[in-house]
Specification:
The protein contains 20 helices and 27 strands. An eight-stranded antiparallel sheet has the order 3-2-4-1-10-9-11-15, with helices on one face. A seven-stranded antiparallel sheet has the order 5-6-7-8-12-13-14. Strands 19-18-20-21-22 form a five-stranded parallel sheet, with helices on both faces. α3 crosses α4, α9 packs antiparallel against α17 and α16 crosses α20. The longest helix has 21 residues. The relative contact order is 0.09. The protein binds 6-O-phosphono-alpha-D-glucopyranose (G6P). 6-O-phosphono-alpha-D-glucopyranose (G6P) binds next to α9.
């Protein structure tokens, strides 16, 4: 969602900020703006893309060694120039950029209006900078203190940066519930919502904790709590590489990330098992391993694609480790008064590690005494910091909004977790355990082979790019894949698509089938293959068009289907990792052919930091 980048140092701030905003585009946004401090405070902002902002700024005064920029994903107020950040205070001597939501902004605003404040936007953010100025003037305190006092009055989540022409050469940032990372260079500092805009300048970063305020003044960084307690920032080295943020010759980040999967799956497995010795070890379980092994029940909380990975995990853990699992939409879980016992385990799955609802689900389960295990991709993000134990997926930065390599990395780690639990609980025979480990080793190569279906998938995309609806069907391990395939298509091509358990089709979606309806079926040769074949026939009998994902060499489905895409044979429990590949490619090609913005689909955000 919204993105933040700010700079204070000896270089010109504008080029660093505008480039930083481009790096942040992947998060999803609908307007952008910058503020530059050079004696006066100049603010430029525009609805639309960062390139529209850069065009608008041409010829304007962009001088300044201190500045900040923002990409906004609208929550309060429509995405127009007025509501874009930065926002000025009443006197226009102070400006703010903000990620998050100030929940009690209406009551603060009403009070400020009584005192003569006039607001230019519909945002909650503008209210906060007016409040800071009001305190600054009335209490006669330094800016830093005015910020702390104002933050003491607000309810909600925020990551903010504040500049003021009253106290130039100073930059103030604060966080609660929304991340802020400070990059420490030589005589210069960078502040951002994630490390992507910082990595090309410095590897030394410090993450602010909730309730902390950073003041960068006279080349010095000071961190305090809102309650004025000094904190020593923990400086760590970034592992992120700049190349990971570039397209590397691909037309889109999404395609690059789809093609990275043989490597990202291998990276997510590396060092975690030894098939010859029949050993498996997820180091992140730490001292909580026994509690998870002995869990009476596991709950999984996640959103979007991560929720689909959670569904795969439910099938795996119940099937292999025989522990009952419930998969919950984090947004529902947190508000529906769920029953949580102290001996429950909650697995939180999140690529970004910042999804507000998933984080809230973690906090809720933690407050009830449950053990929390995280499966996240972004190192140092909020969810892994809030969990007891966890395993990172090693997918590398995922820039395309539609998640691809993060999904397969999550499924890889969750497969290892299910196997480790099963092994420890003795619910899997040694020979079956070793057989799965052996097969797991061959998955990166099989994913590589699945990618060779690209040209065939492109031809299918050409045929169906103008369809208005798609149905995706699967049974067993193929069902979560059907859901994920449908989600990919609707996210980036804006075609309505539904994923369904193949047998459940009879209870509704079958009414939609006519000779226009493409139906994608996961029909690999496993447990319910024969039943899926029957479901294909039910679709064909109603003249629907079948695009079947089949095991290499399958002739029977070829006879019935309009198109088949072959994938290498693998163990049933590993099918999601291979069968999802052609579905990602199908969504990608259809979206490209329809002229959609594949990497930044409309209205979507990469990390959803508001509920
Ligand atoms: C957004 C993204 C999805 C993602 C979901 C959950 O909707 O567009 O791609 O699956 O959030 O995000 P998380 O970072 O928690 O996995």
């Amino acid at each position: 969602m919204c993105g933040i980048v700010a700079y204070i140092g000896k270089q010109d701030a504008y080029p660093i900020i505008i480039k930083g905003l481009q790096r942040l585009e992947y998060r999803g946004y609908d307007s952008a703006g910058v503020a530059l401090l050079n004696g006066t405070l100049n603010v430029y902002k525009k609805a639309g893309k960062v390139s529209d902002l850069a065009e608008f700024v041409k010829g304007k005064n962009i001088k300044g060694h201190v500045g900040m920029g923002h990409t906004r994903w609208a929550t309060h107020g429509e995405p127009n120039d007025r509501n874009a950040h930065p926002h000025f205070s009443q006197s226009r001597d102070f400006a703010i950029i903000h990620n998050g939501i100030i929940e009690n902004y209406a009551s603060i605003k009403a009070e400020l209006v009584k005192q003569g404040h006039v607001f230019e936007s519909d945002t909650d953010t503008e209210v906060l900078i007016h409040l800071i100025e009001e305190i600054y003037n009335k209490a006669g305190v330094p800016l830093e203190e005015a910020v702390r006092l104002a933050l003491g009055e607000v309810v909600g989540a925020y990551a903010i940066v504040i500049l003021s022409s009253s106290e130039p050469d100073k930059l103030i940032a604060a966080r609660k519930g929304s991340p802020i990372v400070v990059g420490i260079g030589k005589d210069e500092y960078f502040v951002a919502s994630d490390a992507t805009p910082i990595v090309e300048y410095t590897k030394n970063v410090a993450y602010l904790n909730d309730g902390e305020v950073a003041v960068i003044d006279q080349g010095k960084l000071t961190v305090k709590t809102i309650g004025n307690e000094i904190k020593i920032p923990f400086v760590q080295e970034l592992e992120l590489k700049l190349e990971a943020l570039e397209k590397g010759g691909f037309e889109h980040f999404m395609l690059k990330e789809i093609y990275e999967q043989p490597r990202s799956i291998a990276d997510s497995m590396r060092g975690r098992f030894d098939s010859r010795a029949g050993r498996i070890k997820l180091g992140g379980l730490r001292e909580f391993e026994q509690r998870i092994v002995n869990a009476k029940r596991i709950m999984i909380a996640a959103c979007g694609t991560s929720w689909h990975a959670g569904l795969v995990a439910e099938y795996l853990i119940e099937d292999l480790a025989r522990i009952p699992v419930e998969v919950e939409y984090a947004s529902e879980f947190r508000y529906r008064n769920p029953i949580i016992y102290e001996d429950d385990v909650l697995i939180a799955i999140s690529q970004s590690g910042e999804t507000a609802d998933t984080l809230a689900a973690v906090e809720l389960a933690k407050s009830k005494g449950a053990t929390i295990f995280g499966v996240c991709n972004v190192v140092g993000s909020s969810i892994p910091r809030a969990t007891h134990a966890g395993s990172y997926t090693h997918a590398g930065p995922e820039i395309g909004v539609a998640s691809t390599k993060a999904f397969t990395a999550q499924v890889t780690v969750l497969t290892l977790l299910a196997l480790q639990l099963a092994h420890k609980r003795g619910t899997l025979s040694e020979s079956r355990f070793r057989q799965v480990l052996n097969e797991l080793e061959s998955i990166p190569a099989k994913v590589e082979r699945a990618l060779t279906s690209n040209e065939k998938v492109r031809a299918i995309a050409e045929r169906y790019k103008d369809a208005r609806n798609f149905l995706y069907l699967g049974r067993g391990y193929g069902f979560p894949v059907a859901l994920e395939g449908a989600l990919k298509l609707k996210e980036i091509s804006y075609i309505h698509a539904e994923g369904y358990p193949a047998a459940e089709m009879k209870h509704g979606p079958i009414a939609l089938i006519d000779d226009e309806m493409p139906v994608v079926v996961i029909a690999t040769k496993h447990g319910s293959y024969e039943k899926v074949v029957s479901n294909i026939q039910e679709v064909k009998a109603r003249k629907g068009k079948i695009i079947a994902i089949v095991t290499e060499g399958d002739e029977a489905v070829k006879e019935m289907a309009d198109y088949v895409i072959e994938i290498p044979e693998t163990d049933e429990i590993l099918v999601p990792l291979v069968s999802v590949i052609p579905l990602q490619l199908l969504a990608y090609h259809i979206a490209v052919m329809r002229g959609c913005n594949v990497d930044q689909p409309r209205n979507l955000a990469k990390s959803v930091t508001v509920e």
